[in-house]
Each structure stands twice: as C-alpha cells, then as structure tokens.
Amino acid sequence: MGNKFYTPDGFCDTLPEVCAFKKEAESRIRRLFGLHGYIEIETPGVEYGDIYTKTDFVPEEELYKFTDHKGRLLCARYDGTVPAARFAATVYKNESLPLRLSYIENMYRFNQSGGGKQSEFTQAGIELMGVAGSDADAEVIALAVKTIIETGIEDLQISIGQVKLFKGIINQLGINDEDAQFIYNAIEAKDSVAIEKMAAKLGLSDEDKQTLLMLPEGQGTYDIIDAFRSRVTDTEAIAALDNMKEILDVMDEYGYLKYVSVDPGLLSGADYYTGVIFKGYTYEVGFPIVSGGRYDNAVGVFGREMECVGFSLSLSLAITAIMRQGAELESVAADAIIGYDSSVKGARAAALSMAEQMRLDGTSVILDTTFNTAEELDSYADANNISACFFIDSVEEGQN
Fold first, then answer.
1. 3-class DSSP state for residue 187?
2. How far apart are CA 59 and CA 75, in angstroms?
3. Which of 39, 74, 77, 333 is deepest in the core (most CB within 10 A)?
4. What's the rounded Cα separation, in Å, for the pair 38 and 125?
5. Which of these, 52, 51, 30, lies nearest to 126 by C-alpha position?
6. What gap in Å lies between CA 50 and CA 57, rounded to an integer?
7. For 277-286, how does the pLDDT look when each residue is reduced to its tens digit (9 = 90+)?
8. Which residues pair with 122 in a beta bridge?
9. How many CB atoms lie within 10 A of CB 92?
10. First and final C-alpha spacing in the chain
C-alpha cells in the first residue's frame, strides 16, 4: 500500500496531551494579546500567490503553490505578517491608526522540516501598525517576552539588532553594493576571516576593519552600543544606536532587560526590515522560536503607507522546546466514567442523569455504552487514568 496512509514529510499528527497543552497555551496567549489591546483577525489559509511572489517578501521556492480552476496561482498561508498587511490596506483601509492586530493560525512552508521545524506549524503574533519610534518597538519586544513566558518557557534570550547600523557603517566606509553584500553574507556566517580579507582588499584602516569585525563578534547591552558610538559618524548608524539604547531603557522599565542582549550582527531579512530586528531563543531548539522587527515599507506595497512593527512566535517550536526541556505534559483523560447494568430497569436513565449533573458541575464524564461489568469498568478506568468510576446496578423504586 506504500506510504499513502502516513503523513507527508514535514507534517505530523498531534498527540492528545500535546494538543491539550497547545490549545491551553493558545487560550492564554489569546487572552494576553487581548489584554494589551490587540484584536484578533483570521486570514484565509489560501492566498493569491501575488502577495508573496510579486512583493519579494519571501523566497518563492518556500511556498506551497497550486492553481485554482481558472489557472490562477494560489499559495498556502506562509506567515501572518503579509496577510495582516494586506488586511490593513484593504479590509481595514478606512480604519484609523494605530492598528493593533493579532493572530493565531497555522502556516505552511516548503522544506522546513528538521530539528523540530515542520512544514505546517502554528504561529501566534501581533502587528502594531501606524506607529513609529522606540516606544512602539519596545512594546512589541516586551510582549514577545511575555508571550514566550506564557507558554511556560523561562530560560529565554532575546537578541536585538538594527539593520540601519550595518547600512550606515557601509555608507560611512564608502563600500559599494557588491562588496557590501559579501560583507553582509560574512557577518551572517560569523566569518571574521572573510571580513578581514575584504577589509584588506578595500584598503580599510585597522580602525575601520575593527568596526566591521565588531558586527559579527560584538555582544552586550549598553556597552556594545557605546563601543560603536565612539566609532560611527554616519547619521543613519547613529540613529540606529539611539533606537537600540532607547529600547533597552524601556525594556529595563518593563523589568525585562535581563532577557535582552544587543547583537549588531543580526541582519537576517535586512531587505524586508527597516529598523530594529530581533529573535528569541531558548535551549534544546536550534532555531529562534520568536522573530520580529520593524517593517515600515510592507503595507505600502498593498496601497496604504504606514509604519509597522511586529513579532511572530512559533508555538509549535516552543512546545518542542518545552518537551525537550523535560516538562511533563498532563495526560488527557476524563475525570469519571459511569456504567450501568442494562438488565436493570431504570439504570440507564439514572446513569444518564448522573452524568449530566456531573457535567453541569464541570466534571468530564464518559457514559459507558459497551455494557462492561463493574469489574471490567474498574479495569478500564485504571488503564486510562480515569480517577472516578461508578456503576449503577440498582435503582430505588420511583427513581427515573
């Protein structure tokens, strides 16, 4: 029969206890978003491919693509941000700013499986639209921290960077686009040797070479910002440093500075992001479980200019991390089971009445319809972690 009864690569079934934990986490996150004024939207699971392919927001080869009956290119929802941008510019085009939107939906990405990643995964996120500035950036980063903690993860680290710092330094040093792309790739790869070779090729001074090397090698908080401040003169780079410093100030007031570090070499998605960029990590998972940043040019592609900043959490990866960190998920079982002797008149009605009353009191109850004996019912309850077992084999006269 081949593999037709297995799930496709990158897709998987969810065990009951994992599903219960995930749904409970979703409820907590949904409430958290609402308490911060973010209203939930649902976007289609299928979009026209143009919103991704003609905007260069994501690599086309990572989309699940297909056509409708008219031959139009469609794709499965890749992320929550681009559909939210489309939503804000079309469905909500007349709504006043700022907009605070949230979502908890399944996403689909081709070739994402491995190391805990899946081609289908649940993503929770927010988009703060129509607001610029460090306070808005910090609000989103702080809510990202709260959201991770809400899942049950306590050991986390948020790395923040600023794409304008890199662009400003490149401009300050007069480096052309081709060489800048080489340096960009080397920074992402943490390849200091390649940067040194390029600096020598360009004839940069030792001081300027060290400035470039600080991008992949530097880590810290206020100290790394101060180190760059003494080296950069480009106004865009200085504004980037000011932005990160202001974000740290606000995170300190939130009480979350302990979770945050500055990573000047964090550049992933620099063509998409226009300012701060951040990623969140925890141990036992080799990928960021949360990512986000400022993307002021995205909504304009759909016809409405506005500043935007947001984040998305891979709830699926977060749960993978929680399980690998040794958390014990509660088994999923009913609280009680009720059986009855079918040969006794009124026993079934009494069992039905008892079950309904217990459910009204908030107890989950299975009504046994397999006609197990009392002993068999006890064995079934033990085997399935059902704490309470009742068997009705007699009914008082006059009882329905």
1. helix
2. 13
3. 77
4. 10
5. 30
6. 11
7. 999 999 988 8
8. 106
9. 17
10. 52
Beta strands in the chain (DSSP E): 39-40, 46-48, 65-67, 73-76, 99-108, 120-129, 157-162, 260-262, 276-281, 290-294, 308-314, 336-340, 365-367, 388-392
CA 331 to chain centre: 25
What is the pLDDT, as a whole number, of residue 37? 98
Reduced to 3 states, what is the DSSP secondary structure of residue 220?
strand
What is the residue whose two structure tokens read 């206020």?
A: 222
Contact 63, 53 (CB under 8 A): yes
Q: What whole-number distance in Å separates Cα of residue 353 and Cα of residue 194?
A: 76
The Cα–Cα gap between 85 and 43 comes to 11
Report how far residue 391's alpha carbon sits from residue 72's, in angstroms, rounded to the nearest whole number. Answer: 60
Question: Helix, strand, or coil here: 76?
Answer: strand
The type of residue at 195 is: I
Q: Which two tokens stand for residue 249?
A: 């100030």
How far is residue 356's CA from residue 367's CA, in Å, rounded to a whole number?
Answer: 10
Gap between the Cα atoms of 369 and 208, Å rounded = 78
Bridge partner residues of 121 (DSSP): 107
Instruction: Look at strands 308-314 and 290-294 and give their pairing.
Output: antiparallel
Q: What is the pLDDT of residues 97-156, one digit of tens each?
A: 999 999 999 999 987 766 667 899 999 999 999 999 999 999 999 999 999 999 999 899
In Å, how far are 85, 161, 217, 294 from 277, measured between CA atoms?
18, 5, 17, 7
Whole-model pTM: value is 0.90
Question: For residue 114, what is the DSSP state?
Answer: B
